[in-house]
Amino acid sequence: MKKLIEFIRKIQSDDRFSTFDEAAIKQGVVLKILSLLDWDPFDVDEVQPEYEIQGGKVDFCLKKQKTNKVFILVKKNGKDFLKHQDKVLSVSVQGKVPVGILTNGMTWWFFLPLVQGSADEKKFLTIELENQKAEEASETFENFLTKEIVLSGEAEKAAEDIYTAKQRDFFIKETLPKAWAQLMSDPKKWLADILGSVTEELCGYHPEREVIEEFISSKFTEKPSLESLIQPKAAAQPPPVKSTVQADDYTGKSILSFTLKGTRYETKSWKAMYLKFCEVVFSKHKDDLDVLFTLSKPGKEYFSKNPYQLLTCEKIAGTSLYVDVNLTAKEVVDLTYRMLHLLGYKDNVLSFEVK
């Protein structure tokens, strides 16, 4: 939608939008975006303002005839979003509305109020108009807030798919260590089961348990030897940053440029520097990018092939990867060095010019 992209660019370039009060945000931003997504703001059967429900009120209710589909709560101060998210969730649950939105015009949080989990788990999508490219923000709006997609149920289905994927990844990460511990509690039994299955696959006969255990004992006379064979090796951890200048030194400083392997790149922000760094480095290591997922920490992903798994992200040019850009200067410097180490470079290939 060309007009929506143009409007988002206008928001990004005009400082007045960040000074709007709630009334101006509703009229000048929210209703404008809804109209560009094919909603009729003058039809109260589609967009009902000041919608009251037992236990509260929301600023807009998007409807399909008498069925409420989306509640939108508008608040001026984005710093208080954590406080206001409870309200949009509670009124959405009260109204049995599948999607709730909290926005200050610039930041948009999308929730699935009726699913199980905490507020963070229910939040499936974030749009940051100040930080995202206009084309990406427009595409996200189109996928989840266009009138036809909302009324058809496609938006809700796509949101549930994101929620399910996040839940699946969470439970897998939580359960894998428990499964491994259970296997390691009786490693001889585990190896015996595998050996029996492979033997049957090769010859068509499954050996008796006693035969398998006798064979294992003949190969490993001491139990520690057997366990040492199958104990998992410690996962390789990215080496720590060894730069002569600590990442803390860049806190509060603006970046002017960075130099990588003798080539200087001018940049206006740490975010822009990080994106350019990824673009340059990744173009030379397209077959090695999976190793970057080892940089993740519990509850914190830095890269993803699904943009909706990251709250604030941008696509790295020339790749199918999205990178988290909601990082401090310290985090950017730390991650760039860790990536270089993983890809086989030394510290001295990278330097920064700051002020």
Supply the key terms.
355 residues; 3-stranded antiparallel beta sheet; alpha+beta; 6-stranded mixed beta sheet
Structure description:
The protein is of the alpha+beta class. It is 45% helix and 18% strand. It contains twelve helices and twelve strands. Strands 1-2-3-4-5-6 form a six-stranded mixed β-sheet, with helices on both faces. Strands 8-7-12 form a three-stranded antiparallel β-sheet, covered by helices on one side. A three-stranded antiparallel β-sheet has the order 9-11-10, with no helix packed on it. It is flat, with a radius of gyration of 26 Å. The model is unreliable at 222-248 (pLDDT under 50).
What is the N-to-C succession of helices and strands?
A: HHEEEHEEHEHHHHHHEEHEEEHE
Give the number of DSSP strands: 12
Helix content percent band: 40-55%
The structure class reads: alpha+beta
Would you identify the regions where 5 or more consecutive residues have pLDDT less than 50? Answer: 222-248
Largest sheet: 6 strands, mixed
Strand content: 15-25%
Q: How does the overall form come out from the CA principal axes?
A: flat
Give the spatial strand order of the biggest sheet. 1-2-3-4-5-6
Mean pLDDT: 84
Continuous helix count: 12
Radius of gyration over alpha carbons? 26 Å
Span between termini? 40 Å
Structure, briefly:
This protein is an alpha+beta fold and 355 residues long. Helices cover 45% and strands 18% of the residues. The protein has 12 helices and 12 strands.
Q: Would you spell out the secondary-structure blueprint of this structure?
A:
Blueprint (H helix, E strand, L loop, with lengths): L1 H12 L8 H15 L10 E7 L2 E9 L2 E8 L6 H14 L4 E5 L3 E5 L7 H4 E6 L5 H12 L1 H6 L1 H31 L2 H17 L5 H11 L3 H8 L24 E6 L2 E4 L3 H14 L19 E2 L8 E3 L6 E3 L4 H14 L7 E5 L1
Parallel strand pairs: 3-4
Antiparallel strand pairs: 1-2, 2-3, 4-5, 5-6, 7-8, 7-12, 9-11, 10-11
